[in-house]
Design brief:
single chain, alpha/beta, Transferase, Pyrimidine Nucleoside Phosphorylase, Chain A, domain 3, Pyrimidine Nucleoside Phosphorylase, Chain A, domain 2, 7-stranded mixed β-sheet
Length: about 325
């Protein structure tokens, strides 16, 4: 098969390109993930979408195809699972996404963090999990074993959705991010989830908000720290909470300009071992929890409490 007819629509440049509808996007992504198209077509798709940008309908169709190819998972009993994507890692600042995961788990909340195991240029959450002796899971049984012990779980994207991992790897060839990176941050392969969705570039805030509304998602949307889905420890970012696709004003807040009046005592280095030691100090009360992360944690707990009771049933979690 060929996706040439789709490339002709999306590949006409930023001004001339036309977006696909949801069914077309699903078909295109299904062919790509199943390996039914050539490497040249994959490259053309990646570059065309990079120039054009995704529409809400395209993201919906793409993500449906991705979810169909994730490994089978089930939720943690009748409890919502917090999905924490971690695909950027630490470049200059300590990656505190694992701290947020551990804080949630300490509250009895099931957490699934997913992303790459390694990144040649950044410190990944998986490396920090390993330094903290937290579980790296490769299948559903290991995932539920971690939750039963009250631990947050990390699952490599290669295990969670191997075809998506291959699409993400295209970046190493063409040198640019592609739609797969946005889709990875929107993954919700479990039937009952609260997603934490981050963005780096402001234009993505509007697109992702429209997508969450269109799909009726439960999610927190925020500007992440170096792309990670955790609040910047030095600032109070904008937080938007969506329940069934509706933005909840009482569970959302605007960003506060500038840096905090009292900056947290963050480690000078951002390697995995140093970051893990800092996280352990915060959890033990030897160092204070940065206020922005405490606020994010509180809002997530409130959002979980506000989820529709009709979804908290064994049938919904099966």
């Amino acid at each position: 098969m060929s996706i040439a007819r789709y490339i002709r629509e999306i590949g006409r440049g930023k001004e001339g390109a036309r977006s696909l509808d949801e069914a077309q996007a699903h078909d295109l992504m299904s062919q790509l993930l199943d390996g039914r198209i050539t490497d040249l077509e994959i490259g053309a798709f990646a570059l065309a979408m990079r120039i054009k940008g995704e529409s809400v309908a395209e993201l919906s169709g793409f993500l449906r195809a991705v979810h169909e190819r994730c490994i089978p998972l089930r939720s943690s009993g009748t409890q919502a699972v917090v999905m924490l994507p971690s695909y950027n890692g630490a470049r200059k600042l300590p990656n505190l996404a694992p701290l947020l995961a551990m804080l949630l788990a300490r509250e009895g909340i099931a957490v699934l963090m997913h992303g790459p195991l390694r990144d040649a240029a950044r410190v990944t959450s998986a490396e920090i999990f390993e330094a903290l002796a937290l579980p790296i899971c490769s299948d559903a049984a290991q995932l539920h074993a971690a939750w039963s012990r009250g631990a947050p779980a990390f699952m490599p994207v290669d295990a969670l959705c191997p075809p998506l991992a291959k699409l993400l790897a295209v970046r190493r060839v063409v040198g640019l991010r592609n739609s797969g990176h946005t889709l990875a941050k929107l993954l919700a392969p479990l039937p009952y989830t609260l997603r934490v969705v981050s963005y780096t570039h402001p234009e993505y805030a509007a697109l992702l908000g429209q997508f969450l509304a269109h799909t009726g998602a439960h999610a927190m949307l925020l500007r992440g720290t170096e792309g990670e889905a955790v609040a910047d420890a030095r600032r109070s970012p904008k937080l938007g909470l969506f329940i069934a696709g509706q933005l909840q004003a009482e569970l959302s807040r605007e960003a506060q300009p500038g840096v905090l009046a009292h900056l947290p005592d963050l480690p000078r280095e951002h390697d995995a071992v140093t970051t893990a030691a800092y996280i352990q100090d915060v959890l033990a009360g030897r160092k204070p929890l940065p206020a922005p992360i405490a606020t994010q944690l509180d809002y997530l707990k409130q959002a979980l409490a506000a989820l529709p009771a009709s979804m908290l049933t064994p049938a919904a979690a099966a």
